[in-house]
Design a protein that fits this description.
Layout: E1 2-5, H1 16-19, E2 26-29, H2 39-44, E3 49-52, H3 62-69, E4 82-85, E5 88-93, H4 113-119, H5 140-147, E6 153-156, H6 168-176, E7 181-184, E8 203-206, E9 212-214, E10 219-221
Parallel strand pairs: 1-2, 2-3, 5-6, 6-7, 7-8
Antiparallel strand pairs: 1-9, 4-5, 9-10
Helix pairs in contact: 5-6
Amino acid sequence: MILFAGDPHGYFKHLYPFVRGKEDIALIILGDLQLTTVEELDKLSQYCDLWYIHGNHDSKTVAAFEALWGSKWKNRNLHGRVAEIQGKKIAGLGGVFRGQIWMPPNKPLFLDPIHYCQYCSQEKIWRGGIPLRHRSSIFPADIENLSKETADILICHEAPKPHPSGFTVLNELASQMQIKHLFHGHHHENFDYSELAPQTPFAITNVGFRSLCDEKGNYLLKNIDDRKNKS
């Protein structure tokens, strides 16, 4: 069974009842792990096949960044690639759109991290590359590279349309990749697409704040977050 977890924001205890004592569980976290150490991932992975994509909060601090990109767990980030998990081809697009890089449908300011570094000041360079904040920004090259692949499932941190804060470019990507189901996090309200997106050739599920669903989009746990600031 494949389970999809919405933004944990540093809290993981709610996931254990669904993976402990079970067999053949793959757990995929849809961004905003917001870690301070790798200890939590090490513990959780004892009970499941653990994967993730990063969200915007995963490059807000050096500690959050190091826990994912500076550890063995970087190999479990599905961003920018397709992996076969329990017989399903799953593609990942982590991060968010930011106006300093690209805010669709506007034209992008930079195509990829190398392009950004060519034009930014040296004070902004961090560890020989783009600033820490933009380690979780989506570049056009991320979309272009994935569009050449095919998959059964696409996981994103950002939302597609018809979510009020969604992006049509993700719908286009999903169609190009011939996916059957798109799962996303970031928005904490478990947005219901059932009546708004009947015309899409693929299903869409928003797995909200500390929520959990199966690969058919059935919620196993809903934890609604009423906070105004979802970013």
